[in-house]
Amino acid sequence: VQLQASGGGLVQPGGSLRLSCEASGGTATTDAMGWFRQAPGTERKFVAATLFSSRIAYYAEHVKGRFTISRDNAKKAVYLQMNDLKPEDTAVYYCAADPQAVTIGSRYWGEGTLVTVSS
């Protein structure tokens, strides 16, 4: 399974960006898809995830109310709408997928997409 992420860029504080990630190839199930992020010099941290089967969404505390994760089952895609972005949201965002749950040990990872929040 390959994950292709896109949508990163430079945005001013308070602005918005929408990240996309599509899964392709393979026959493995990817019921759980989501996002992690990694700022320079820090470890990769969970941002948000969703389960295709149950439609349940999970968020890290620091993005609740600002970020929204959604998915398109037909496209095997997941999206992350990021609003009211802050400089501390600057990081490389990684898409992850797994048959069961999105964790740091997820089976599949995409290449990161850089989000820079700066004036």
If you had to describe this structure to a student in words, what would you say it looks like?
- It is a single chain.
- The strands form 2 sheets. Strands 2, 4, 5, 6, 9, 10 and 11 form a 7-stranded mixed β-sheet that branches.
- The chain is mainly beta and 119 residues long.
- The protein is globular and about 45 Å long.
- The mean pLDDT is 93.
- The protein is 0% helix and 50% strand.
- The protein has no helices and 11 strands.
- The protein has strands at 2-6, 9-11, 17-24, 32-38, 45-51, 57-59, 67-72, 77-82, 91-98, 108-109, 113-117.
- β4 and β5 (45-51) form a beta hairpin.
Number of helical segments?
A: 0
Number of strands: 11
Structural class, from helix and strand content?
mainly beta
Radius of gyration: 13 Å
The best one-word shape is globular
Quick check: average pLDDT? Answer: 93
Proportion of beta-strand residues: over 45%
Helix content: under 10%
Biggest pleated sheet: 7 strands, mixed
Task: For the record, give the distance between the C-alpha atoms at the N and C termini, rounded to a whole number.
Answer: 37 Å
The stretches of 5 or more residues where confidence is low (pLDDT under 50) are none
SSE order? EEEEEEEEEEE
